[in-house]
Amino acid sequence: MTLWRSWHVHNELTHGKKAPPVEASTRFLSSYIETLLCLKQYPSADIAKGKMVISHQGKHITDQEENRNTNVLEERWLQPPRGWTKLNVDGAFNAENHTGGAGMILRGEGGHVIFSSCRYLRSCSSALEAELAACMEGIAIARAWSELLMIIETDCLTAAQMITQDGMNRSPCATMVTQIQRNLEEVGEHVISHVVRSRNKTADALVHIGHVKQRTAVWHSGGG
Which intervals hold domain RNase H type-1 (predicted)? Predict the structure, then answer.
């Protein structure tokens, strides 16, 4: 994993880009290693939907069990390091009427909100499309409000893997993935991180506003 990341940094320098900070590489590798270990230990867990096994106080529980047990501490959202922002995104899909929703929130150092947003998706074909729509719109809005380095957190492992993978993407969502990757090139240094659902609660709440209330809106720190 270290050699793979080192080769990535080498390629960035070869193409005239700035070398990523060591801290960014550390967070990037830690996130991937955590996911791989979880897949190895719990191969039946549905990580793509956030039903991954997490560890609390020496116990291993699923997200569903966590919701039923109020005595178990949740993994909470962590603020970004100095000089970084953190974008949390989430999506929802209704298979009955093929609609969806997207929720996005960008926070800076100290956890202050730079912007939050929700969107009603009048036409949506899958849960993955809703997740990618949230990511694509969230990055686009974030670029308008901040020039700092960015961490993007999603509780959809499939979306995170598709965005970070190299090579040809032949999925129905290939066009969206390509657009997200292009937007990220303009962002510059960034980290894509898969997190458990308990660390993505605010984005999930925004999804509810967008999907259930069929509302599209953006709120930013300057008001409005």
Answer: 88-208
